[in-house]
Design brief:
Blueprint (H helix, E strand, L loop, with lengths): L1 E9 L5 E5 L3 E2 H12 L4 E8 L4 E2 L1 H13 L2 E12 L4 E12 L2 E11 L5 H19 L5 E6 L2 H8 L7 H17 L2 E6 L6 H11 L5 E5 L10
Parallel strand pairs: 6-9, 9-10
Antiparallel strand pairs: 1-2, 1-3, 1-4, 4-5, 6-7, 7-8, 8-11
Amino acid sequence: MDVIIQWTYITPKKQEIILTSELLEAEKALWMAEDFEKTGRVKDLVFIDRQNTSWTKKELVKLLQEVESEPHDIIAYFDGGFDNETSEAGIGAVIYYHQNHQPYRFRMNRRLYELKSNNEAEYAAFWSVVQTLEEMGVHHLPVVFRGDSHVVLNQLSGAWPCFEKDYSAWLDRIEAKLKELGIHPIYEPISRKQNKEADQLARQALEGKIIESTIELTKKGTNADE
């Protein structure tokens, strides 16, 4: 989690000056805040995250303590497939995360029936990941989203415009939920080869093989790219 420190400084002549830091890791920001307080010239300290949410020092400390016991350091992979003959879609998602100092991997897939294209299946897969993050209790954290659908990721990031009405509906829904959860998305388009785990799950869904599992990873398995 990254924050900006907003420090209301009191000068020797009792004037107030508001100083603002660059974006810092929350742990480092708290350490610096404690250093500021040693000057005896702090009237107020506020921490502002990437979603423009303000936190007091006490609130930020509590949040970081909660984060350690909840999923964090999250990398989420997604993929969607569409069968033109049956008009059925399969979606797959893999989420790597840490919780209570341990690495985990969550895998799931779904078979969907009311979509119209492969791109819409990709959007549905991304939406499923966001819903899963909400169920896991993820909030006010950066999350890395990886997929081989450059259309979806570039439209979500704003790099590409979205003119299709169906896609815009997914886009609006996803952006609203990310904002609600305070998630700072980091979009990383990857190749299909790099996305093979989520791709396989989407294919298995189309075959009728539904999977949902969470496992604790060994030290070797902590690399999401393996």
